[in-house]
Amino acid sequence: MSSPTQVLRSVGPKLVPFLKSISVYFVLMAEQPSLLTACFKCLPIISLIVFVLLHGMSLSKEYTFSRRILTGLVFSCIGDALLVWPNLFTAGMAMFSIAQIMYIIAFGFTPLNPSIGAVLYAGGALVTYILMPGLSGILAIGVPFYIMLLCTMAWRAIARVQFFDELWTWTKLCSCVGSICFLMSDTLLGFNYFYSPIPYSRISIMLSYYAAQLGIALSAIESKDNNKPIEVKR
Prior knowledge:
globular
């Protein structure tokens, strides 16, 4: 595997469209839902989709990880567009649920590391308990289900990084950081929607969200290494 410095030199120019599109979104973002707002909001994720494609994609087994990450990004992009309109929140959450499932499948369940999962599920249960009074109808079922998926995704991403056993790579570290940013972003979103408005919510939610998707997209680089079985030391 290439060193982080070498990879940074290689991927840096390819991330310029992503960084520019984020700048455009925050400069031009509007409060009123519109097709133009949806386009600007989706541009950074579209840039990451192109970024993953540029690093190689085929139907061969060695690119299974990349294909799953790519699929997750595509459904995230659809979810982003739908969430621009408040009445489509449930549909947007459904799209993000599919994205989380694709990320979970990509990260796999080896090594298991159940202690990390226990901590995340406990945190998810606490957030669900706090938000439940503000939920009604299908959201009373959909939001807890999505929180479970989000916690599972973060668990699987974090569990892949084994510093003490030296079984980690910088791409796995990227997905770990990305998953934590996803937790932050969606937790802020949930509290802002269903508990109490958060000052500067859009900026904090979207910055952490774009950071999350960037980390997950970077994990698809050199995807051949991501598909190698992990030898767990005993």
